[in-house]
Amino acid sequence: MLKSRPNIFEFVDYRQYITVFFEYKKSQNPRFSYDFVAKRLGTSRAYLKNISIGRRHIHLDKIPALAKVFDLSQLEIEYFLMAVAKSTVKNTEVDEYFGRIMDALKAQNYLSTKYIAPAMDGKGIYINNNWLGSVIHEMSRLEGFKFDSQKILSQLVDHEDITIENVEKIMKELLELGMIVLKEDGVVQHVPVEQSMLPQSHQESLKSFRVSIEKSYSILNDAAKYRPLRFFAGCLAVNFADFDKIHREFCLYHDKVVEISKTSVNPDHIVYLSDCFFNVTKKEQAEPT
């Protein structure tokens, strides 16, 4: 018995996906059947059965109704359409073309789901999807760091769009989630994410530098033609000497990937790299006290 909803992005053959999905829905609701779905598609049970066993293909105009019954997202519908198109062509080049689109949609789904952590009773989602949460959590590693919203705000670079209320909201969530501990003398103690009360998916997102992935992805999805294959952004608390080391390593990484591209034989892909290195607190904050 299938315990979880089949992931369409794990299937190349859309008909196999339909078969497995039917098995899953049947295990959840005995009333779910080919007759049930056929009625909503305005077709027959035999039509659906022949599709699932590979005797025929689904008509494209039936896909919207099927997607509604299967409760597919827009991205899943696009993937399903490409899978149907891929299964109907005989030309190898066209088949590979649809395959590449499916791979791109699969990567897009990977980005949008794997590193987006679900909310924990409404808590933590602001931390995970707002860069300021990562900044303040790392600031709590600095010696003598205190719960002083005004001072925290003054230490940020270019903070005109951030308010005291934003800082206080972040601090409150960090406390509730056990990511910081407030001591009697007012000093804030840093707690590593793996020791906090964050769900595992939140922890993985923060540790692997996927902070703000949901917001960034949604913006890119709406406005950009090209989507990133990998996205990372996060904060590190370091002393001033190590700051210089990180900067050098960051530049060496950039030079290295450029050199790899120069020696690449018979290139057939164009990739766009975009890397940024920001100092988000003022210089004196990064130096030892």
What does this protein look like?
The chain is mainly α. The chain folds into two domains: 8-114, lambda repressor-like DNA-binding domains (434 Repressor (Amino-terminal Domain), Orthogonal Bundle), CATH 1.10.260.40; 125-286, no CATH class. The protein is 54% helix and 2% strand. It is built from 14 helices and two strands, in the order H-H-H-H-H-H-H-H-H-H-E-E-H-H-H-H. It has helices at 14-28, 34-41, 45-52, 63-70, 74-88, 92-114, 125-128, 131-139, 149-155, 164-176, 200-207, 213-223, 240-262, 283-286; strands at 180-182, 188-190. The chain has a two-stranded antiparallel ribbon with strand order 1-2. A hairpin with a 5-residue loop joins strand 1 and strand 2 (188-190). The longest helix has 23 residues, at 92-114.
**Biggest sheet, open or closed, and with what strands and sense?**
2 strands, antiparallel
What is the count of distinct domains?
A: 2
Beta-strand percentage? under 5%
Order of helices and strands: HHHHHHHHHHEEHHHH
Helix content: 40-55%
- Overall, the morphology is elongated
Mean pLDDT: 79
Question: How would you classify the helix and strand content by structural class?
Answer: mainly alpha
Q: Largest sheet, order of strands side by side?
A: 1-2
Q: Give the low-pLDDT segments.
A: 113-129, 217-224, 285-289
Radius of gyration: 25 Å
Distance between the termini: 60 Å
Number of helix segments? 14
| Total DSSP E strands | 2
